[in-house]
Write a structure and sequence with these properties.
This protein is α/β, with parallel strands linked by helices. Helices cover 35% and strands 23% of the residues. The chain has 10 helices and 10 strands.
Length: 275
């Protein structure tokens, strides 16, 4: 497949019809999850506003990753609800949540290592016309039109992330930081409603992390993407996120901007064991 100069396209969030009276795009309602005698999540509740960048922090064992696993269908909750854009999606499968616009990425970037960066991006959109066997056998024009549309979309993503030079490179040859840029690009190919980022700063050098952080801000500001980020790097959290949600022992301990969180004695006690 040849790369050529053509009009670039990047998916934009569609207008979201609200079923709620507020501007929350994701609501977590009294989620509980236990593993044997261990209560990992205990009546966890909070809202994520549309077009926000929300940070989710807490000491090890606070329940952050377990909560992400429940939200994204890896674990089933014992009770409570997950509401996405006014729709109850509690215990939906990961694939079904993907189709509804809830995406999780980053902790372990997963790509087709023996495919190029461009082909990885083009493989993301679901329900492609080329997946229809009858149309494929008939050599339908619809397939060519659909492939061209996806190709233009992928080119736009490559340009946005400033990785057009990597288009023909195999994903298995990328550095850890470049793989995270590819993961972000794959997210952009889905036109998501909410993106859950799991430790975007892990294993990334400061220079590339600054670039990645800039792309997250740009996607939020210019394209209305909503993010929720788990991260241990407080400098990264403070530069990206408002509000910040603090979890401890499976529950929400505090919520607010970075100054409010830093001044909260309960947060200091949870992290440091001091009052």
């Amino acid at each position: 497949m040849l790369l050529k100069k053509t009009k670039k396209e990047i998916p934009r969030n569609k207008a979201m019809k609200k079923l709620n009276n507020d501007d929350s795009i994701l609501s977590i309602r009294s989620i509980c999850k236990s593993f044997g005698g261990l209560k990992a999540l205990n009546e966890t509740s909070f809202d994520i506003k549309s077009e926000s960048i929300t940070g989710l922090i807490g000491p090890n064992g606070a329940g952050k990753t377990t909560l992400f696993n429940v939200i994204t269908g890896f674990f089933k909750s014992d009770s409570g609800q997950v509401i996405l854009d006014g729709k109850n999606v509690t215990n939906f499968s990961t694939h079904k949540l993907f189709k509804n616009g809830l995406i999780r990425t980053f902790q372990i970037p997963a790509s087709f290592e023996r495919m190029t960066v461009l082909d990885n991006l083009m493989a993301v959109p679901i329900n492609q016309v080329g997946e229809n066997l009858i149309l494929t056998l008939m050599g339908s024009k619809k397939i060519k039109d659909d492939e061209k549309k996806i190709f233009l979309q992928a080119q736009g993503v490559l340009d946005f992330l400033e990785i057009s030079n990597l288009a023909r490179k195999y994903a298995g040859e990328l550095s850890g930081g470049q793989k995270k840029l590819l993961e972000l690009g794959k997210v952009m190919m889905t036109d998501p409603k909410v993106i859950l980022l799991d430790e975007p700063g892990a294993g990334v050098n400061p220079s590339l992390m600054k670039k990645l952080s800039g792309f997250i801000k740009k996607l939020n500001k210019e394209r209305g993407y909503t993010f929720c980020i788990i991260e241990h790097d407080m400098d990264l959290i403070s530069s990206l996120c408002d509000p910040i949600i603090v979890m401890a022992e499976g529950s929400v301990l505090a919520m607010g901007d970075i100054e409010k969180i830093r001044a909260n004695n309960l947060v200091k006690e949870a992290y440091l064991g001091t009052k």
